[in-house]
Amino acid sequence: MLETFLQIIGGFAILSFFGYIIPQFVIIFSKPLDLHSRYGSGWTFVTGGSSGIGEAFAKKVAKMRFNVAILGQNEERLNRVEKEIKEYSPEFKTLAIKADLSGDPVQLTENIMKQLDGKDVSIMFFNAGINVFE
């Protein structure tokens, strides 16, 4: 009985080990994802792109040869991020869209769509959020 129990525990340990190690090998030896060859040279739309994860993502896709439209609430930070992206990717376009997501959603959507009109948006990265205080 104890021997059977230990065999079952050992089997689970081995499965857990291989369940961890095999994906690690796939990650290590797989070729990096080339978004440009997959989606073309269109635009990437990033909400929350004026700071944090959104800013980092916007800069990363700009380095991958995408035009970038960043949406944020703070105009000063938007302009800073736009300037930084243009410095190391001057051949690609950058568009900063100032918007407050806590406003009227219909008007907000219309405003954003008007600014993105005619742009081939290939990737959308939704990273914005709002805080609700009582």
UniProtKB/TrEMBL annotation:
Pfam families, per the entry: adh_short
Stretches that traverse the bilayer: 6-29
Keyword Membrane included in the entry's annotation: yes
UniProt GO MF annotations: oxidoreductase activity
Domain of life: Eukaryota
Keyword annotations from UniProtKB, A to Z: Membrane, Oxidoreductase, Transmembrane, Transmembrane helix
Family affiliation: Belongs to the short-chain dehydrogenases/reductases (SDR) family.
Protein name per its UniProtKB record: Uncharacterized protein
Species the sequence originates in: Streblomastix strix
